[in-house]
Amino acid sequence: ARHLFYQWFFKKQPIAKTHFANFSEIAIISLVLTVILGYVFKPQNSYISNALSVMDVHSVASTVIHNIRVHAYDYMGLFKSSDISLSVVSSILCWLMLAFTVVGALLKWRKGPEFFDWVTVLYLVLIMFYQVTSDYRYLVPVHPFLIFYLFYFLKIAASKISASTIMLKAALFIVIAFVYKDHLIYLAKTTTETLPGPYEEISRETFSYIKNNVNDDDVIVFNKPRALALYTGKKTIYYNAKAPVDVNVATLHKYGVR
Engineering a disulfide at 90: which of 81, 83, 110, 159 sits with its beta carbon 3.0 to 4.6 angstroms away? Predict the structure, then answer.
């Protein structure tokens, strides 16, 4: 998004999609293939099979309507200001960004859909059938394309407005700086800091200790198994907090937890 805005704001060049298309298309195609395999083979105890198992004909309509609302609010949350005094302005801006994105997508399709347009639509259709709560991670694979549609609309709108381009950009910059001043201040303060997470010194020391002191055959029980496996290379598993104790014990023993 920063690259697109910089290119449009300062360089007056067409918005390029080739910079981010390859990575996102690979991610979307991988997810589509995973979902198809979930339908065909229905593996037990997998995330996809569990999601598909709760679906039935009677719940499809309510699930789709619910997901449209959830994902729309998740997307608008990207533009929400943390300043409570600007809640009204922030809400208006959020709805405008959503509307601009939708209109931009429609205008792009009217001009002629390309490959990334098709995979975006296919992906959005697929995630509408999952019964999920609010979680922006489902929109991450198509986030670059949604931002592209937003700027696609802004580019067309700017060309239709009689006001000078400099004045329009200045007004847009003032609105963004005013509404998101808290975010900008936070970014300015934390630019050179290491944010809480896996790159903190204590985290790196922990990963190093696990790498050097845990056997490769041992299995670690952790609430973030994928992250721990990524940074240590050790076998890691997650326990189901909602399952009975005996079920968890049996499952953990099955996968080698001692």
Answer: 81
